[in-house]
Amino acid sequence: MFCPNCGSKLEEKEKFCKYCGTSLSKIESDTDYTDIKANIDEEDLVKSYVGNHYDKIVNCGFSFPTFFFSIFYTLYRKMWLYSFLWIIFDFIVLMVFDFYTCILIFLFVNALLAVHFSNLYLKLARKRIQQIKQNNNSMSNEDILNLCKKKGGTSMVALILAIFMIIIFIIFAIGIYFAIELFSDTETPSNHITSNLLQYELPPEFSNTNEYSNQYQRFIYMSSTDYCAIHIKMKKNYQNKSLEDYFKSSIYSSLEDKVGDITTKNINGTNWNYVSISNQKSTKHYLATIKNKDIYEIEYSIYQDDTKYCTNNYEKFINSLDFTNTNKDFNSI
């Protein structure tokens, strides 16, 4: 202990200062512990708070644990507010942007925080140390050091809890995804349509463009990855000699187009003439047949097919084409 009058170092059990004679009986109650704690070396407190790898954290220019483990590392270092804000930010990014954009944003943010991690963490540590000193004026220096060590350091429990919650979230998301897929496969019926004598199953998610009548229908599917359209035409009392003549007179192509041979497809007992025309921008499938002197033409156009949604549904749609003897009007969707 120290004399409050002359500052000389004394034994703990001394009642009077042997240098100036000041009474020490009330030193415990009269001494300002804030002044005593001010004598504690700040870096000792920071070292006690940071714990393991103090030198690496203080001297690092780029925190690789922050870059590779992001939120998990800040939770491990008890940076609660930073971790919470990071989680909210990641959630917003995932809701707004596509997958590849999210990856780029996450890499950029991880790198930015990895560069500034040392400054952010040490600033937070010093702020918490000041709060500990202010809230525990009656503690000895040794107790303050121990309390900094307890309040700081790392938390394996928080890390394990975060990993556990992430696993639960992933399992929950997978369960929701498969539940939606199962529901869509079992509960959502295909759109069965009859127009004149022709009936067919409209592929899921194709929308009606309101351009239809008994002699013309048009449907489209459009997303960020796929775009295709279906045109169905019917002409009454067709007078040309053959379907080949019809194709030649009604289907147009340019020098850049690749035109396939005209072939015959038997679909549900009806012979359809078929030809495909493709270029760098699209692929168009044409089918035509004659029924009761009326000609039916199908055009299935694919403009973008990144996920093969349009191609996969083309086969399903074509195989659903059939004729009925019941003449019904076109049913809107």
Any descriptors?
333 residues, alpha+beta, eight-stranded antiparallel sheet, two-stranded antiparallel ribbon, 12 helices, rod-shaped, disordered C terminus
Describe the structure concisely.
This protein is α+β, with helices and mostly antiparallel strands and 333 residues long.
Number of strand elements: 10
Query: Mind telling me the C-alpha Rg?
Result: 39 Å
How much helix is in the residues?
40-55%
Count of individual helical segments: 12
Query: What percent strand?
Result: 15-25%
Task: Give the H and E element order.
Answer: HHHHHHHHHHEEEEHEEEEEHE
Averaged pLDDT, please?
A: 82
Most strands sheet: 8 strands, antiparallel
Describe the 3D structure.
The protein is of the alpha+beta class. It is built from 12 helices and 10 strands. The strands form 2 sheets. Strands 2, 3, 4, 5, 6, 7, 8 and 9 form an 8-stranded antiparallel beta sheet that branches. The protein has a two-stranded antiparallel sheet with strand order 1-10. Strand 6 and strand 7 form a beta hairpin. Helix 3 (42-50) crosses helix 8 (99-135) and helix 3 (42-50) packs parallel to helix 9 (141-151). The longest helix has 37 residues, at 99-135. The relative contact order is 0.09. Mean pLDDT is 82; it is low at 28-37, 185-189 and 326-333.
Secondary-structure topology with pairs:
Elements: H1 27-30, H2 33-38, H3 42-50, H4 54-59, H5 64-69, H6 71-76, H7 80-96, H8 99-135, H9 141-151, H10 156-186, E1 191-202, E2 207-208, E3 216-222, E4 226-235, H11 243-250, E5 258-259, E6 263-267, E7 270-278, E8 283-291, E9 294-305, H12 309-319, E10 322-328
Antiparallel strand pairs: 1-10, 2-3, 3-4, 4-9, 5-7, 6-7, 7-8, 8-9
